[in-house]
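Hi U.,

Before I forget, here's the chain from the pilot set. I'm dumping it here mostly so it's searchable later in email.
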Amino acid sequence: MSNEMMPRPPQRPLRWTDTILDLPDLLNDITEPAYLVGGAVRDALLGRPVMDVDIATSGSGLALARLIANRLGGDFYPLDTERSVGRALVETPEGQVVFDVARLRGDLRADLLDRDFTMNAMAVDLRGDLSLLIDPLGGEQDTFNRVIRRCNPNSLQDDPIRTLRSVRQSVQFNARIEKETLADVRAAAPRLLDVSPERVRDEVFKLLSLPDATKALRAADALGLLKIIFPEVEPLRGLKQEPPHVFDAWTHTLAVVEQLIEVVATISPKRTDATAAQFSLGMIVMALDPYRKRLQAHLQQTWANDRSHRSLLLLAALLHDTGKAAPGDAPERGVSARITDTRARALRLSNAERQRLVTIVEYHALLPMLADLTPRSIYRFWRATGEAGIDVCLLALADHLGTLGPYFQQDAWIVLLERVRTLFHAYYVEHDRYLAPTALIDGTDLIAALHLRPGRMIGELLELIREARAAGEIETADEALALARANLERRNQ
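Structure:
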């Protein structure tokens, strides 16, 4: 074994959880070489929680993953039978740990050389001393120096998704992308079109899950990545907007994403006194804290493959004004919604994600137009948006802040917050009235009493009755029938 492949003590101790430290004893009967590799080693070096563990073995990754699941009382899943990649999900005192086990690509050195960045190309012998590091590419020093460096000159061309990963990890670890790697990122950017939509989607959602997702978006934009993934935002650059907008459409979009992160942070369990120190965020605390726990539950929901709702909401912010640059006289929100639908399909989002995303974008500008929130308009808002109305309200707050920028107006902000508070009160406190009003009569009653035939008119009359019920205008079945009868008479005049 060459000197560079010899295990050695790292500059700082590797901090493993008890679950990892127990692995050598639990697997002491395996005969094939196996190594902890990639991000798990980097995180152990940095003293970060190690919850995602990559293992490379010269044997079967499927067999070793199954063995880990069995011996740690977890669940086994085959990820790629052709390439012998398996996954074990194990519940531990520290939380769920994901073990992904794959067959080595050649020997260990070749495997590490074929990885993305040097900080992810370190290894620890699972059958040896877990305190010793194997680091042929200088990943330890790059980790401590906070440098993103590609493992070989072809790293990014071989797998262009690594261009996005370089941005994400540079923000995640507050690291700079080394000069040659930076040039390779720019050169490989167009080849993102050759990557499967599912892989691009997953990397985009990981990027949007960062605490400072705006910084990552700006970096991706500067490196020419964003226009490849989201070509619909390119026409927004430099597009002038009418007052009260103070930014061009692209600057405004980034400002809205940034403000939405702040709005969500103000609601989140991690809020501190510093989080809400400025007036705009402090007023959110005062207006919306009665609904904070329920808003947190809403934001903590996940979509397919554990994609976070926060990331989906930020994606809506990124796409919310894409229709502004479209030619023609069609309403901008409708064009933006259609563009968003197309992009959601291209990213292979689930139908539920796509529908939520499109609804948020379609109705994001509705709230400022509701000058007076009457019971009838409150009902119509929630009827149109459903649960997505919560996201519409949050995006509307961010959109307002991203529109005015430094020309923030306290009075206008208080008015908007009061509208949001009223809508949240209706949703969370008066849900039955506005979202599920009690049925006074049904279609059969209408047909019998008014001598109607089944058809679209029955649905229209029932909706008219539900709306009047929510508005407090009718309370009994007789009043519902009278309302329907009067409506029919007006139609026949």
